[in-house]
Specification:
The chain is an alpha+beta fold. 54% of the residues lie in helices and 14% in strands.
Length: 740
């Protein structure tokens, strides 16, 4: 390397930088599970468990905007020692609170939120008692009489957290998806870096064999350079990741934050990076140098190359067979959701298909180039096809990373669709309930104007006896026929300006008031007003649980009795049901009415937070996959241009024009790229559909995602074509003229 001049040093530098980028991406992917595990371990260590002690407790978990707020009320019933959670030196007494640093910042920024945390702040929770830097957690001291459902505190800590940041089933899917969109392209990329200047290096190794160097020593020469570059790159990649972790842990991702120690790689990760990357470089070097060592004369004289092996195409057969089989079952309406078989067959089929794309493109491209080369009349096209036919592997090293990126993008779309179906309501609208007694008139007006809120209405329940006896009651909801039609699945028979009863024949109600019955509604001054159930009914079919429920009375705003008691009233906000809108509305509610308890009807705030975390991690995975794919393209294209300088020189001496040479270069890149991207779109969409079909959701065919995939593929083709133009220099260098 050091005696081969400037080129050898540049090649070593490129191999080192390539390994650095690869190990950086590998460290990032391998450290994500440890970040999640560290978070869950700390939250499990603070979980209260019932037992025997002198302390009572009660937990509350409410949404604060789009974040979960966890409050643990504790009350002493006798003096003496008490169990302590991690990160806290002592439990708070009556009137005292201990809160997380992030919650302290929110209380300082919004003093109205102090109603959620009654008491005097006496300290903050240390990091070992928090899930992450953004955790909203509070220990609140109170009296036993204030607890509505007290339990005796035994200890803190459980074997596993009941509220994991990512559900185990979703975590399995996340790991598999990250493996497909990052690790599989990463292996290809590291292999490309280990084979830089493969043709010229093979010629030098063949020359060493011809002058008498043994097979073993020749392989050692090749392995020494590759392993040394990979080792230096691994050290630099790990160092770069450690620096990036210190920075990103202070910034975080949407829904996911961590402490710097959580993101530091474990010894297993360090060993995989420092030993696995050089081992892969050694293996690739041994494989690529085999022909130069065993047949040095053929390498020096450019003997006829063997056609690519077709075993890669065989990997596509079982993978596509399983995927297409599930798609056919879905098209026929057969239910194939769930089951151990599908949970094993679909991931295995996806892996086989992805690997088949890598190894099967070479024989497919060579066959296509042979057919096109025999029928085309264009000189650039003919030259490009003959070059691709002779050496399809070099072209595929340029495009493989981009092909896998599009394949992974399709699979990622399916994962997001499936998780979105599981984590939210299937209705197109989302309702949020707040008690009227928790919000003032000014807050009600402000809440109706929160971005994303399409409608705000109020509802009241009839007066209940104080003795707790179960008596018939009625609810009224304020609204118009237009609102009823807009925010329910179906509503017929509604007449504006009249009080009417809602009736849902699909779902029986607990109370079904009869026409002519009268129900009392409490007023603010203590009196009651009686409302009579009308005979007119509106037949409706609501979107699941809704304020427009069967049995309720629809009262137009002008006919609403004045002075109804806020204690029996509920403010309902309605928005679209997509997660981004739900999150924005919850944040808006948290800013305007931070002390009000919010009930997002039909969804769990933990599921919404989990979906945010998974989306952030998949975005990180796609970003890493994009970096790897683009880096593989740039490195391979530049290396290929350098390796082809001798052939370009020969063509220039024969009279080929600069435009012809550039066209040959572009076609050599675009033809295998078109084949690969076309296969990636088809197989990726089928893999996505099979995953959705077996997932059990209502969406089986992602037709909306196809235009996005085609747009990405066209963008990749356009960028690759432009990037290929400057790779050819029509410069006759005598050094590149082959004399043998």
């Amino acid at each position: 390397m050091w005696r081969s001049g400037h080129r050898g040093k540049v090649r070593f530098l490129l191999m080192t930088l390539g390994s650095t980028l690869g190990v950086f991406c590998l460290s990032t992917v391998l450290t994500i599970p440890s970040i999640l595990t560290s978070h869950d371990a700390r939250t499990a260590a603070r979980e209260p468990t019932p037992g025997k002690s002198n302390v009572l407790y009660q937990e509350f978990r409410d949404p604060y905007g789009a974040q979960p707020l966890h409050r643990l009320f504790v009350a002493r019933i006798a003096p003496g020692p008490a169990p302590l959670p991690p990160g806290v030196k002592r439990l708070p007494n009556e009137g005292e609170v201990i809160i997380s640093p992030r919650l302290a910042d929110l209380l300082r920024a919004n003093p109205r939120s102090s109603g959620l945390i009654p008491g005097r702040v006496i300290g903050t929770i240390a990091p070992e008692g928090l899930g992450d830097t953004e955790d909203l957690y509070a220990y609140i001291g109170t009296t036993p009489a204030e607890l509505t459902d007290p339990k005796e505190l035994g200890s803190f800590g459980t074997g596993r957290s009941w509220r994991q940041i990512v559900d185990p089933s979703a975590l399995t899917v996340l790991r598999f998806t990250l493996g497909c969109i990052v690790l599989l392209p990463l292996v290809i990329y590291l292999s490309v870096c280990a084979r830089l200047s493969g043709e010229s290096r093979a010629r030098r190794l063949a020359a060493l064999r011809l002058v008498g160097l043994s097979v073993k020593d020749t392989l050692r020469v090749n392995a020494g350079e590759s392993v040394l570059a990979a080792s230096v790159g691994a050290v630099l990649g790990l160092t770069g990741y450690l620096l990036a972790n210190e920075l990103m842990s202070r910034i975080g991702l949407p829904g996911l934050h961590w402490y710097p120690a959580d993101g530091r790689p474990e010894w297993v990760t360090v060993a995989v990076c420092l030993l696995g990357c050089p081992a892969l470089a050694w293996f690739v070097g041994q494989f690529s140098a085999r022909q130069a060592v065993l047949s040095p004369i053929d390498v020096r004289r450019t003997g006829e190359r063997k056609p690519p092996k077709k075993f890669g195409v065989l990997l596509l057969v079982p993978g596509l067979g399983i995927i297409v089989g599930y798609c056919v079952l879905g098209a026929l309406g057969r239910d194939s959701a769930g089951g151990a078989a599908s949970s094993l067959l679909v991931p295995g089929a996806v892996l086989l298909t992805g690997v088949g794309l890598v190894f099967g493109l070479a024989p497919i491209t060579a066959w296509l180039a042979r057919r096109l080369g025999g029928v085309v009349e264009s000189l650039p096209m003919a030259l490009a096809m003959r070059r691709t036919e002779v050496d399809p592997g070099s072209s595929l090293r340029v495009v493989t990373g981009l092909v896998l990126l599009v394949f992974g993008a399709s699979l990622t779309q399916g994962v997001l669709i499936e998780l979105d179906q599981v984590s939210r309501r299937t209705a197109p609208v989302q309702e949020y309930n707040l008690r009227l007694s928790d919000v003032s008139q000014a807050q009600r007006k402000a809440l109706a104007g929160v971005p994303g809120v399409r409608m705000a209405t109020v509802s009241y329940s009839s007066w209940d006896p104080l003795d707790g006896s179960d008596v018939a009651r009625a609810d009224l909801v304020v609204g118009t026929c237009g609102q009823l039609a807009a925010y329910t699945r179906q509503a017929t028979g509604c007449v504006d300006g009249r009080v009417m009863q809602l009736h849902d024949g699909h779902t029986p109600s607990e109370y079904d008031p009869k026409a002519g019955e009268r129900y009392p509604f409490a007023l603010e001054d203590g009196r009651r007003v009686l409302l009579t159930v009308p005979a007119e009914r509106v037949d409706l079919h609501p979107w699941g649980a809704s304020v427009f429920q069967s049995g309720a009375l629809l009262v137009p705003p002008p006919l609403l009795p004045s002075g109804l008691a806020d204690a029996n009233g509920v403010l309902t906000l309605v928005s679209d049901a997509d997660p981004d809108t739900v999150r924005a509305v919850l944040d808006g509610i948290g800013r305007i009415a931070p002390t009000a308890a919010v009930e997002p009807v039909g969804i769990v705030i933990d599921s919404l937070a989990q979906l945010t975390v998974i989306r952030s991690l998949l975005v990180v995975g796609m970003a890493l996959g994009l970096v790897i794919g683009v880096a593989a393209f740039v490195v391979s294209a530049a290396d290929r241009a350098v390796e082809r300088r001798g052939q370009v020189t020969a063509l220039a001496l024969l009279g080929a024009r600069a435009g012809t040479l550039r066209m040959v270069q572009v076609v050599q890149v675009l033809v295998p790229l078109v084949v690969g991207l076309g296969a990636a779109i088809v197989t990726g969409w089928l893999a996505e559909s099979s995953y959705l079909i077996t997932g059990g959701g209502s969406v089986h065919w992602d037709w909306e995602g196809l235009p996005l995939l085609f747009a990405c593929a066209l963008g990749v083709l356009f960028a690759a074509g432009l990037a290929s133009l400057p790779m050819v220099r029509r410069h006759v260098d005598p050094e590149h003229i082959r004399r043998d």
